Amino acid sequence: MPTVAGPRVHWVSVLTVVFLAVFVLAVLALVAADLWFTNVEAMQKVLASEEVRHAVRLSLLTSVCTLVLVVVFAIPVGYALSRYRFPGSVVLDAVVDLPIVMPPVILGVSLLVFFRTPVGRWIESVEWMRFVYTVKGIVLCQFFLTASLGIRASKAAFDAADQRLERLALTLGCTHGQAFWRVAVPMARGGLAAGAVMAWARAVGVFGPLLIFVGAVPMKTAVMPTVVYLEVSIGHIEPALAVAMLLLAMAMVALVLLHWLAVGRRRWWAS
After folding, report:
1. What three-state secondary structure class fits 134?
2. What Rg do the C-alpha atoms of the chain give, in angstroms?
3. Cα-Cα-Cα-Cα dihedral of 152, 153, 155, 161, to 10°?
4. Residue 5: per-residue pLDDT
5. Which fold has domain 44-270?
6. By the 8 A CB rule, do 100 and 174 touch?
7. pLDDT digits (tens, 9 = 90+) for 25-39
8. Runs of H (alpha helix) within the chain
9. Could you tell me the residue ranges of all domains in the chain?
10. pLDDT digits over 138-194, tens only?
11. Residue pair 218/52 in contact by the 8 Å Cβ criterion
12. What angle (nearest 5°) sits at the alpha carbon of residue 106, between those of residues 101 and 107?
């Protein structure tokens, strides 16, 4: 890497590092406040609660199911957006990104309204396809809020993959399906994995639409974020913080894994 002429310390470097330090300290201050307000005994007491353990299990179960759905959709959709050009592709890109900018509460309202339409009522009339106020509804909310992140990460990964290798595979006798699975997907696997981690972390923290679409019934549809809300609503700050710290720990693990994947599997502490 060529050296940069001029002093290493100048007003731009000082100013940007100061802003970086202020932001990092602000985030760490929030985490430190949470740690100061709770303790190990409170964490153990909360995690011993059957309602909390049910919420943790339900959060993990629904987020993993959502992750599978996101991967199933993100890989082909991201590939199509990356490789094909057709009229209206800009509009399709905007529609795919819409759930990212849509307020989560609006998504919950939209889902509830949809299932009051004739089509939605027909779906609800089928026993195994009921979504409103059910566990399947949790997965549906999580999917709509996270799929766009997975698709966008998938598209970026395929954009970065060398298309010439796919064309070379076709000239060597591979079918389009073989070129996709044996060349394109392996080249994009780092970005695809990072998108999957990001989608899972987002799914675990979904809150707004769940209150509207599936409710927050303990031992039925209450997941970790809704448990935090329920505890705070009745003034139980310590139990809410204990669950929040568990969510924070899960998010931190996901972020470490995400950054590890982003730097090409180099040691994350040296990056």
Report:
1. coil
2. 22
3. 160
4. 52
5. MetI-like fold (1.10.3720)
6. no
7. 998 898 888 778 777
8. 11-37, 40-47, 50-83, 89-101, 104-114, 118-125, 135-160, 163-171, 176-179, 185-187, 189-204, 208-213, 224-233, 237-262
9. 44-270
10. 999 999 999 999 999 999 999 988 888 888 888 888 888 888 888 899 998 888 988
11. no
12. 80
Q: How many angstroms separate the CA atoms of 109 and 212, rounded? A: 7
C-alpha 147/C-alpha 162 separation (Å) is 25
Rounded to whole angstroms, the Cα distance separating 173 from 109 reads: 50
Q: Classify 49 in phi/psi space as left (phi over 0), alpha (psi -120 to 50) or beta.
A: beta
Place of tokens 């470097």: 13
pLDDT in tens, 103-138: 888 999 999 999 999 999 999 888 888 899 999 999
- The distance from CA 49 to its chain's CA centroid, rounded to whole angstroms, is 27
The full length of the chain comes to: 271
pLDDT per residue as tens digits for the range 224-271: 899 888 888 888 887 888 888 888 888 888 888 777 766 554 443 343
CB atoms within 10 A of CB 99: 18
